[in-house]
């Protein structure tokens, strides 16, 4: 028996704003007296095109995406982008820089190396993935076609709180787990991509924001549906887009605007994570190894000083309605994901539970 209210700390798919789900439920059968669900609308029709264009405008406004950048709503998740980036951006045999900061950058490197020569410009392995390598220690290749970073390492609990300067080499970021959690200077990037399932909406939808001059003909073997150029030139009509997911993402963008935009949401996110990290650091039972300056505000990774208590911690947390606090299987330990939709009350409940659990095991 799980007590309510329930708070879902899953890393992905993550918690959605309740208001958005409520609105989607109200509109599910008949979208604004159209006689149709959004799921049933022809994607080339006026109604769906209006939904998609509104979502594009709202996202552009929220993030401050400048002119000269395109927003693409694609399918396939962030993992597909690990391959599609080199297929779209690099000729065969070209080199790209990657910075290895943990589980997801290693995945991007492994996939990318099937299509490009990869120079690992820096690796967090030197410090056991407890910090983001300082740029002074990077060894970039001046001829690289792009430099890839993972702005937030979902499994390792690390995030960049600064932006690298890669000069003329386009900076490319996998922002899957911190997209829309804070303002970003889009103009500093060549490409930003993010799977939707943390702060945007249903899994599968993938957002790519790309500077116009990088929209080139993809390698000939690239499926047309995954060519940035084909998708950009067709205005997302090359094939059926993820219509329902785009609609939900649009509701989330609207919700974010009502929250006061990304500055306000970032401030709230920082307060939530500061409180949780303070509770972890203030107890002998919990420990977080990540360097304080590099900790993620989205995914707080920590563990129990006595690891044999982990299962008991997770079981008792679950009974109290605190769900999915286990760490990523590759990393272990505990993880609390504090995406935009996690209310302060969820963080309060988690901290209260952690204190009570620590008191019982003092
Ligand atoms: N990159 C990061 C930072 C992630 O957290 C994830 C998934 O959690 C992925 C990539 C893979 O995303 P997908 O499952 O959409 O392929």
From TrEMBL:
The catalytic activity of this protein is classed by the Enzyme Commission as: 2.6.1.52
Q: List the GO terms this entry assigns under cellular component, sorted alphabetically.
A: cytoplasm
User: Which co-factors does it depend on?
Assistant: pyridoxal 5'-phosphate
Q: Which residues carry this modification: N6-(pyridoxal phosphate)lysine?
A: 198
Q: How is the cofactor bound?
A: Binds 1 pyridoxal phosphate per subunit.
- Which keywords appear in this protein's UniProt record, sorted alphabetically? Amino-acid biosynthesis, Aminotransferase, Cytoplasm, Pyridoxal phosphate, Pyridoxine biosynthesis, Serine biosynthesis, Transferase
Q: Which InterPro entries does its entry note?
A: Aminotrans_V_dom, Aminotrans_V_PyrdxlP_BS, Pser_aminoTfrase, PyrdxlP-dep_Trfase, PyrdxlP-dep_Trfase_major, PyrdxlP-dep_Trfase_small
Heme: is it a keyword of this entry? no
Localisation per UniProt entry: Cytoplasm
Q: Where does pyridoxal 5'-phosphate bind?
A: 78-79, 104, 154, 174, 197, 239-240
Gene Ontology molecular function, alphabetical: O-phospho-L-serine:2-oxoglutarate aminotransferase activity; pyridoxal phosphate binding
Reaction catalysis annotation: O-phospho-L-serine + 2-oxoglutarate = 3-phosphooxypyruvate + L-glutamate; 4-(phosphooxy)-L-threonine + 2-oxoglutarate = (R)-3-hydroxy-2-oxo-4-phosphooxybutanoate + L-glutamate
Its annotated pathway? Amino-acid biosynthesis; L-serine biosynthesis; L-serine from 3-phospho-D-glycerate: step 2/3; Cofactor biosynthesis; pyridoxine 5'-phosphate biosynthesis; pyridoxine 5'-phosphate from D-erythrose 4-phosphate: step 3/5
Chief localization: cytoplasm
> Which positions make up the signal peptide?
none
The subunit field of the Swiss-Prot or TrEMBL record says: Homodimer.
Recorded protein name is: Phosphoserine aminotransferase
Source species, please? Answer: Halomonas heilongjiangensis
